[in-house]
Amino acid sequence: MASSLDAHLESQCGNDPLKRQVGTTIRNLATAAVKLRNKITAGGEGLGQAKGGTNAGGDVQKELDVVADKIFMEAAEASPLAFFGSEEQDDAVLLKPDAGLAMAIDPLDGSSNIETDVTIGTIFSILPVEEEHRADPSKVFRQKGSRQLGAGFFVYGPQLLLVMSMGNGTHVFIFSPGFGGFVELNASIAIADKANEFAINASNYRHWDQPIRSYIDDLLAGSEGPRERDFNMRWVGSLVADCYRILLRGGIFLYPGDGRKNYAKGRLRLVYEANPVAFCVENAGGRATDGTTPILDIEPEGLHDRTPLVFGSGREVERVARYIADPS
Ligand code: AHG
Ligand code: MN
Ligand code: MN
Ligand code: MN
């Protein structure tokens, strides 16, 4: 019988008190994810309806964004967390002041896909809390992604999946109703080094810098161009779905900065999207950068800071950096 999530967390945490708190938090998130998934599959009109407000990043808030935020905040309140930072809340929330961990979360990733029944997800990042953070809470979500103690994402698709890492490989679990919990689907997934697919929202082509345009042009030229082979393209519009596909069969994902005023640093958020994705991708042997700098080395300016994001098969991510370094 494949190992369960509980057995995996036991093996990852050992007797380390802080790691055990990370494990407890992930267990609580998994329970919350099953609850959210049941709400999604139960449907009910309105989950995709705009609530009328926008979040701190200016995104339209959908009903399910808010429902998901509430479900995961309840899970956070039951976990050993001092701070909770969410895409759907302007500021970090103080929970247990003396707890040793903080969590940043994208409660519902892929909101534009809710009403079309396309795969969506939840992304989480777990960080340590130091004394300096208790003194100045604004610092807690300005830690670099390399400080993460655990990170991952749930995929609400035909399968309910958990992709996670605690820094020792990246592991995939599938929710099994028969088993009544998450069981291991892929122990230590490894990203294929060669990319045959690319993921980018091509409608933004006119907003990209020239090196990104040249890089995509060469992929589109396929076997008639300098790459001398054909590539396929996939763009789901849910980061979790594109990331899981790339973990499974290789590829490269790009959301570059573009000239539009609020997307100068790209659309994706560093703390609760790029950092956890980068943690899982790098622990699977891939790479994640802002085009040139490793995502995990970037110091966030704040909880909702954005960053350009390029991740996937290592060789391909490095090739993008060469196009940027030498645009000729
Ligand atoms: P969210 O729904 O949490 O705001 O995230 C949406 C993100 C990400 O999931 C996806 O890769 C990207 O937005 C899609 O952006 P476009 O709609 O601009 O293609
Ligand atoms: Mn959003
Ligand atoms: Mn998102
Ligand atoms: Mn979201």
TrEMBL record:
GO MF terms, alphabetically ordered: fructose 1,6-bisphosphate 1-phosphatase activity; magnesium ion binding
Residue sites binding Mg(2+) 1 per the record: 87, 106, 108
Homology family: Belongs to the FBPase class 1 family.
UniProt keyword terms in alphabetical order: Carbohydrate metabolism, Cytoplasm, Hydrolase, Magnesium, Metal-binding
Cofactor note: Binds 2 magnesium ions per subunit.
Catalytic activities: beta-D-fructose 1,6-bisphosphate + H2O = beta-D-fructose 6-phosphate + phosphate
Descriptive protein name: Fructose-1,6-bisphosphatase class 1
Residue ranges constituting the Fructose-1-6-bisphosphatase class 1 C-terminal domain according to the UniProt record: 191-323
Pathway: Carbohydrate biosynthesis; Calvin cycle
GO CC list: cytosol
All residue ranges annotated as the Fructose-1-6-bisphosphatase class I N-terminal domain in the record: 30-183
Subunit structure: Homotetramer.
One protein family per Pfam: FBPase_C
Keyword Metal-binding: yes
Cofactor(s) needed for function: Mg(2+)
Keyword rRNA processing tagged: no
EC number: 3.1.3.11
Residues noted as binding Mg(2+) 2 in the record, renumbered to the chain: 106, 109, 273
Biological process, per Gene Ontology: fructose 1,6-bisphosphate metabolic process; fructose 6-phosphate metabolic process; fructose metabolic process; gluconeogenesis; sucrose biosynthetic process
Primary enzyme class: hydrolase
Lineage: superkingdom: Bacteria
Major subcellular site: cytoplasm
Cellular location(s): Cytoplasm
Gene from which this protein is expressed: fbp
Gene source species: Jiella avicenniae
Residue numbers binding substrate: 109-112, 201
